[in-house]
Amino acid sequence: MAKLGLRYIWFKLALIAGSVLGLLLLLQSFFTYYQASRGLVVEELRREAQRQVFSLGREADRLEIREPNGLGPVLEQLRQESANKIAWIRIVDTERGVLALAGNPVGPPFSPASLRPGVRADESRPDVRETEGGRVLVTALPLRMRRGGPRPGETAKPEPKRDPSTRPERWVEMALYLDSVSAAFGPLLTNLILSCSAALGLVASMVLIWLRFPNYVRGKQLEQQTELARQVQMDLLPPADLSFSSVDVAARCIPAWQVGGDFYDVFSTGDGHMAIVVGDVSGKGLPAAVVVGLLLGAVRASSWMGGGREHEVSSGRLSELLRTRTSLERFASMFWCYYEPESRILRYVNAGHLPPLVVKQSAAGKPEFERLQEGGPVLGVLPQADYQQGKSTLCAGDLLIMYSDGVVEATNSSYEQFGEERLLTVIQEHAARPSAEIRDAILLDVHSFLDGVPAQDDLTLVVTRILPA
């Protein structure tokens, strides 16, 4: 049990680790989706800004505008055409500041000084600002315009040479609404749904297992206790094959569950008598197994082989014991007998059990059957129940076959029972064989009749051959 408890501790730790892993996977899925979708939005807005700046340059060329100061009307027209996308546009010169503007800008204009060394403006960190119309992404792109030429009839004046590093730069600062993007998030959203479903499934399974864990532990403990009870019950039963000077016994008890309510016992007494007991307690499982242990102990402790009266009184005491010490639904049928080798008389009391069969050989060599029915009601039902001892004279070679109702009531898939007729047929075919072979033949025929259908009741069979003196 200590090893089992340690195993359960590790199992609980594994459940906790699985739940934490599922939550981390869920958070990671949302974080990844947020980062990836934000990156897609930024890239789409930057491409849109590039398209707009390209359109601006083309329109300036068409209108032959050579100076940024004259782009104000073009900027306003461009913003009006894309009012749901563009919040403002302004052209910024590194020396003279804002040269042209359309819209209502928020915040200071773009300055190349804000860039990190070696980073272009179109690769810079996104600048997201809050406006009255919503959040916008501010993008700065270089403005490329044709330089103005001389007027007709004038000679072009040479421009003074300037260091390229000190030449003023012109930028188009464009603010685009974040909610205007139409990036395709289908595959990304599908991946999010799958990841979240897997994470939620993992967490849900861990929670479900955690909730069911106490029942699982109780079930395992009950399974261990049931297995222990089965071992104890099997230890209480005598070996399957027993041979004495006066009888040869072959028995088998097959529970329908791990533990059952059928039982048998075979033992000899100091005066040479052979006691044989077969019983069937109502119900199955542990409650029935407890009653089985009670009856086996009482049978061994009772002095019921001293004569007919003692046998009958002991049967009544057993019935009263069950009636007063167990619940109403607990009762038992039992056939208990003892064989006197010197007189070859079998003395018995049948307490509501299926009548055992005495198989004798007739003068014609055919088996003849005698049913042992003398006795009384089942044990544990009627108060002050009366029982009568019966007897049967046996000869060498005779068979005594005792069985429980699970043998004749075995039901196949066609809802047909094995029945007593089939049992008698098998006994007739194998009556001359040893006890163990007869037992095995009967059980084999029962299992063949069931054809794979699990038995619904315990199967108990005791075959006894009377040996010559």
Question: What distinguishing features does this structure have?
Answer:
469 residues; alpha+beta; Phosphatase 2c, domain 1; six-stranded antiparallel beta sheet; six-stranded mixed beta sheet
Can you characterise this structure?
With 469 residues, the chain is of the alpha+beta class. Helix content is 40%, strand content 23%. The protein has eight helices and 17 strands. It has helices spanning 2-62, 72-81, 186-236, 285-301, 308-325, 405-408, 419-430, 435-450; strands at 86-93, 97-103, 127-131, 134-142, 170-177, 241-243, 247-254, 262-268, 274-281, 332-340, 345-351, 357-361, 367-371, 375-376, 390-393, 399-403, 459-466. The protein has a six-stranded antiparallel β-sheet with strand order 6-7-17-16-12-13. Strands 8, 9, 10, 11, 14 and 15 form a six-stranded mixed β-sheet that branches. Helix 1 packs antiparallel against helix 3 (186-236), helix 3 runs parallel beside helix 4 (285-301) and helix 7 runs antiparallel to helix 8 (435-450). 28% of the residues are buried. The model has no long low-confidence stretch (mean pLDDT 85).
The coarse overall form would be rod-shaped
How big a fraction of the residues is strand?
A: 15-25%
What is the mean pLDDT? 85
Number of helices: 8
Helix content: 40-55%
CATH class membership of the largest domain = Alpha Beta
Q: Characterize the main sheet.
A: 6 strands, antiparallel
CATH superfamily of the largest domain: PPM-type phosphatase domain
Topology:
Elements: H1 2-62, H2 72-81, E1 86-93, E2 97-103, E3 127-131, E4 134-142, E5 170-177, H3 186-236, E6 241-243, E7 247-254, E8 262-268, E9 274-281, H4 285-301, H5 308-325, E10 332-340, E11 345-351, E12 357-361, E13 367-371, E14 375-376, E15 390-393, E16 399-403, H6 405-408, H7 419-430, H8 435-450, E17 459-466
Parallel strand pairs: 11-14
Antiparallel strand pairs: 1-2, 1-5, 3-4, 4-5, 6-7, 7-17, 8-9, 9-10, 10-11, 11-15, 12-13, 12-16, 16-17
